[in-house]
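Recall that a protein's primary structure is simply its ordered list of amino acids. Everything else, from secondary elements to tertiary packing, is in principle encoded there. The following example makes that idea concrete.
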Amino acid sequence: MAEALHQLSYDPCASRVFCGRPPAELRRLADWVCDRDPYGELPSLRAALRLVDPGNDDPRAHIGHQLWCAWRQASWTAGTARPLPAVVTSGRHWLDETRGRPTVLVTPMTMTTADALHTFAAVFADRPVVAFGEGAVRRYGAGLSVANGDAGSIRDILGHLAAGGVLGTYADFVYDGRGAESTTLFGRPRPLSSGFVAAASRPGTMLLPASMRPLGGERIAVEFDEPLLVQGTPRQTRVAREGMRRLIARLMEGLIRRNPQQWLLLPTLTFDCPQLAQVRPDPVETAAAAAVPFTEADAKPPYHHRASGFPYFPADPIRR
């Protein structure tokens, strides 16, 4: 089904036809897919749902959300889309908590990239926002910049963060060919962007968990959880990358479980995705971590819950 959704979303002709269909027709199409299973994928999709939510493996809502997102992307491709209003429905006070600090959003892929970036730009209208994109990416908002993966991208991202900006990029997907590191998500191996992990690991950074969902197809609801402050020193950070990957995965799992049917990458738990990066060990990073001896100070957990001081990692050293 992924190939069909991609064509409906991005093909110049198909997108112009698809974006003109009414929402009621999308619901009927979702029902038809669930009743007929034309791609033979429903058993695998149900298996993926059971990994996330063992009590509900009905794929109807997930397929409906996939079609809605494809419909939205088709509108962007055809040039007829307009940004949907963003509504912060929970955790607005946490935005003030991160103000003035480098802030990295930890958010699962539940929206098209265009809708997500417009939402980030609207919610953080008073702060510089930077995102990572592939290829030519149109400008999404006056306060939002897109780094396209060239040699200066990481430098641009770190510059925005140093100015108290926000990095808004999906943490749960990294394209094949990009630097990736391995973690585990719902018991399955998962690549994380090496650049994302590096940006999130810098001491003084705030990790802000966030989730997005459509409200009646006319607005986008955003929920924020309590942010986490990355503590420690650069030396500690370098040997704690594995711990940071586990933390990101833990946050992602909690966010996805709230609305598992709306996680667009749900099928990748049980399907091979050729676009998803293949994780390869980084010999340079491995050697660097092994060369730095642990001390008593290193054993202190570098990541803490900002309000309570609850350590997210055990007190013993995190070894690679």
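Residues 22 and 304 are 47 Å apart (CA to CA). The chain has twelve helices and eleven strands.
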